[in-house]
Amino acid sequence: MSEQTAQEGTAGIRRVVVVGAGMAGVQTAVALRERGFAGEVTVIGAEPHQPYDRPPLSKAVLLGKAEDSAFDLDFDALGVDLRLGCEVLGARPADHELDTEAGPVPYDVLVLATGAEPVTLPGTEGVPGVHLLRTLDDAERLRPVLARQHDIVVVGAGWIGAEFATAAREAGCAVTVVEAADRPLAGVLPAEVAAPMTRWYTDSGAELRTGARVERVE
Ligand SMILES: Cc1cc2nc3c(=O)[nH]c(=O)nc-3n(C[C@H](O)[C@H](O)[C@H](O)COP(=O)(O)OP(=O)(O)OC[C@H]3O[C@@H](n4cnc5c(N)ncnc54)[C@H](O)[C@@H]3O)c2cc1C
Question: Is there an atom of ligand 1 within 6 Å of 44 CB?
């Protein structure tokens, strides 16, 4: 889109509010500025950390080779009002207003960039020794687990399961990966493409059990 078109397209819009300070939310704010939008841009994120990229969480951050993976962006220079540690509780479209933990926030245009949540297993919430891997806080909690070289069971042989299993093996943990489907990456890749990836597990010394849906955790 040309700058002229972008400006014409946003005529009359003064305030854009983006909910979610992940990759999608942050890139929305950057793109608005790059395309010449001169109105107010507010990005609201529930997490307290500077906006960060998640891929290093299952690699360098997990293994302690990087402290964090914050985006290299100057939000002040971009003129973006970044509000962190603030959960958006709901929207009132008729009023063009959001309700947040810190009070109402008006908008002309609202962008929902609230991302995804990991699938949890019933009965595991808050149980010691059971972890999710989605956020920077999760990766920081898992780092000492790897350092203590525990025996680890990974549920899910998708991309993140594979990366975590490899990192845990590298840290010296015994690793078993359980996967409900009959092969790794079944949800995202055809069998012939995913077949060689089964070797990742053997090569790293992790045990992969397919067709093994978790029924319960005791
Ligand atoms: C460990 C890990 C490794 C990954 N590795 C790769 C990789 O190697 N390559 C790759 O392509 N992808 C990878 N991904 C996936 C990639 O990180 C995601 O596709 C990407 O994070 C999606 O960005 P997003 O902005 O849409 O959502 P998210 O990153 O989920 O960001 C959404 C944000 O919105 C916030 N939010 C949600 N609800 C509210 C609310 N009500 N109020 C305020 N804020 C709210 C959340 O707190 C969150 O910070 C990985 C993901 C993980 C977890």
Answer: yes
